[in-house]
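Chain A, query sequence.
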Amino acid sequence: MWKDYEIIATGDGMKLERWKDVILLRPDPQVIWKSSINMYDYKGLAAYYERHNTGGGEWKYLKKVPSSWTVSWKDLKFKVCLMGFKHTGLFPEQEKNWEMMMDLIKKSGREISVLNLFGYTGAATVACAKAGASVCHVDAAKNMVDRCKENIELSGLKDAKVRYIVDDCKKFVEREIRRGHKYDAIIMDPPSYGRGTNGELWKLEDSIYDLVALCEQVLSDKPLFFLINSYTTGLSGVVMENILRLTLKRPGEYKSYDLNLPTLENGVKLPCGNSAVYINATK
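Chain A, predicted structure.
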């Protein structure tokens, strides 16, 4: 469980959060219910993200906010800051997946190589490296890969076996196939929409099946797991589970599940996307 993060209140398309000592108010499309309080008047609120009618938005500051600060999850540390498109550089709901992956790696009893595609700021990379795996971290944005390096160092893992790759994920996997490189585990956290290093258009629903099928070719003969995350509204975890079943066709466990976070409101949970995973039964 988090100590440096919590959701204080939700409603009217917004979520009020505490990131260590900084309180933020951010939009969330899943919050379609009414708020019981005026979150903009919440004592201690430091900044809120205001959407523009024409698209995008900007942060509005009510107090001085550090340019960046560090939050901890267990003994791992992550840098957060106010970024464009309402982000902070970390998705706290992923703790369920971090715990699962770390547990699988530790219990495997062997050296595990992980390919983390669309790795963003590298929280999953940090978790897997902490568990003892070697990780290849791939993202098309250099600043995100640089943040991953910072998070690795913040968590005391600068000597961990991590490769940092700035590249289009599909093109990188194609090259790995030609090179004959294999991985025991694959993590895929693709955006709903995006562009590669050369402006290649990515749309999740149109591209995910082919990419998973491509990645199957870089799985080792004894894979440990294959995890897909999605924040695309309307794309269920079962859809991604089906894609894993149809492309991998390997014996083992296939499952999907919702990701959510508790709030300080009585019984209210915030939905935060979903995941699907394949786990090799033989490990």
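The two ends are 27 Å apart (CA to CA). The chain is about 25% helix and 35% strand.
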